[in-house]
Amino acid sequence: MPRVTEDRLAERRDEILAGARRAFARHGYEGATVKVLEAETGLSRGAIFHHFRDKQALFLCLAESDAARTAEVVRRAGLVQVMRELRDIDAGWLGVQLEVRRRLRTDPAFAASWAARQAAVDDAARSRLERQRAAGVVRDDVDVALLLEFLHLVLDGLVSRMAAGTTPDRLDGVLDLVEDAVRRTDPPAGRAEEPPHRSGPPPGDPSPDSVVHRRTHR
């Protein structure tokens, strides 16, 4: 019998995770029974749990993967970019995020284990805001911790609204307002006033970052 290659094993894991994501999005964690998982993945329970210990392991793998990706986007482009990308996100991602939030409220053990993953996202966002403040891009009259809390509240609100099936018609405009709320309005001494709608930092900005990568919507 030919040995299953590592690539094929990885493909099978990805197939199982994709099916599990659909199951959690459509039925919630509790409703995603073994039969539902079998139907969504097209595999038997034996095949599914050969790769994952149990349903919780499946869910945690998805949630951890999403948290790692979010942290990477935040490091690269900021929390507002995460919000901009929600327009193209699938229902499965939203379903997993809602389940994470539910379990944070109802499962103390899960909340404790999730703290480190959330800290990675927070640390990336805080570091970026501090870099932007040092570069004169982010306002300096409000504590960074408060700016971070503000951005998280907007992100959580968007996730909840979109999970309910409503995508804001003017999402780009809303996020432009969010961006303006954290941007410094008075240029530092010796720095020219930046144009109201730009892409990237003004010439001579010592940092390559911006609060977000602003797109042209107008």
Summary keywords:
2 domains; single chain; mainly alpha; Arc Repressor Mutant, subunit A; elongated; Tetracycline Repressor, domain 2; 218 residues
Describe the structure.
By secondary structure, the protein is mainly alpha-helical. It has 2 domains: 1-52, Homeodomain-like (Arc Repressor Mutant, subunit A); 64-218, Tetracycline Repressor, domain 2, CATH 1.10.357.10. Helix content is 67%, strand content 0%. It contains 9 helices and no strands. It is elongated and about 60 Å long. The termini are far apart. Mean pLDDT is 83; it is low at 192-218.
How are the elements arranged and paired?
Layout (H helix, E strand, L loop, with lengths): L5 H26 L2 H8 L3 H7 L3 H23 L1 H6 L6 H16 L1 H27 L9 H20 L7 H12 L36
Estimated share of beta-strand residues: under 5%
**Percent range of helical residues:** 55-70%
Kindly, what is the distance between the CA atoms of the first and last residues, rounded to a whole number of angstroms? 61 Å
Structural class by sheet pairing and helices:
mainly alpha
H/E element order: HHHHHHHHH
Spans of at least 5 consecutive residues with low confidence: 192-218
Total tally of structural domains? 2
Question: Can you summarize this structure?
Answer:
This protein is mainly alpha-helical and 218 residues long. It has helices spanning 6-31, 34-41, 45-51, 55-77, 79-84, 91-106, 108-134, 144-163, 171-182.
